[in-house]
Amino acid sequence: MVRRTKAEAEATRTAILDAAERLFEARGVSRTSLQHIAAEAGVTRGAVYHHFADKAQLFDAMMKRVKLPIEQARAALEACPGHEPLVRLRTLLCDTLRRVADDAQTQRVFEIALHKVETVDELSSVRTRHREAVAEHIATIARCLEHADLPAQDAIAVHALVVGLMQTWLLDRGSFDLVAVGTDAVDALLDGLAGRVNAPAG
Predict the structure, then answer these.
(1) Is 177 within 8 Å of 111 (Cβ atoms)?
(2) What are the pLDDT digits (tens) for 75-128?
(3) Is 50 exposed, middle or buried (0-12, 13-18, 19+ CB in 10 A)?
(4) Which residues, at least 6 apart from 85, have a Cβ–Cβ distance to it below 8 Å?
(5) Nearest to 197 by CA among 153, 165, 161, 163
(6) Residue 76 burial (CB < 10 Å; 0-12/13-18/19+)?
(7) Whole-angstrom distance, CA of residue 30 vs CA of residue 33
(8) Which residues contact 58 (CB under 8 A, 6 or more apart)?
(9) How far apart are the first and last CA of the chain?
(10) Integer angstrom CA distances of residue 70 from 8, 111, 174, 183
(11) Dihedral sign, CA of 118, 123, 127, 133?
(12) Residues 126-164 pLDDT 10s
């Protein structure tokens, strides 16, 4: 038996993930089987199982290939003292919107995550992993807001704003300028949150 090199194994894994992205976007996650993915990638079903235990693990790996700016800078965000985190958070949220607007792979992955994960029992583990990622994202924003002396619960509003903008834009990508409209919306929300805290007691 010929042993595959590490580079060959990685190339196979990448081909499987690329195939999954294409099929999940075209067919939806529930209507795409591992056999479909194997055929699209030009590999055996056994090769898929060699790299991924199930569809949920494959979905998770696909999501992790796209690192948004706020995820990449999580440690730096949480370490920033004083009000600097609010400025940094604004930059990262706007960079995230720009990344979605400009990068085709990021668009595909978020199109799948936001619009192609059907509510069926088969995908319960996929939805669980998705919920965990959302919770982690909200927790990161919350810690950043706390460093800026803002209520942690406001992280839900910040997260909902950005995800809502992305979801609406992905439904009709020509309907508005995601970066311009999104930047204005992020500024308005963060300014409003900061102003509410700093407003004199009346």
Answers:
(1) no
(2) 555 555 544 778 888 988 998 899 999 999 889 888 888 888 776 666 677 777
(3) middle
(4) 77, 144, 145, 147, 148
(5) 153
(6) exposed
(7) 7
(8) 16, 17, 20, 34, 37, 48, 51, 52
(9) 79
(10) 32, 19, 25, 15
(11) negative
(12) 777 778 878 888 988 898 888 888 999 999 999 999 999
Map out the domains of the chain with their CATH numbers. 6-53 (1.10.10.60), 66-198 (1.10.357.10)
CA dihedral over 6, 61, 88, 111, signed as positive or negative: positive
What type of residue sits at position 120?
Answer: V
d(CA 1, CA 7): 17
Amino acid residing at 14: T
The number of residues making up the chain comes to: 202
Per the structure block, which two tokens stand in for 17? 């993930």
Those residues whose C-beta lies under 8 Å from the C-beta of residue 27, and which sit 6 or more positions away, are 36
CA–CA gap between residue 110 and residue 127 (Å, rounded)? 14
**Do 109 and 63 touch, CB atoms closer than 8 A?**
yes
Q: What angle do CA 38, 42, 46 make, to 5 degrees?
A: 45
What amino acid occupies position 173?
A: R
Encoded amino acid at 48, one letter: V
Residue 128 near residue 97 (C-beta atoms within 8 A): no
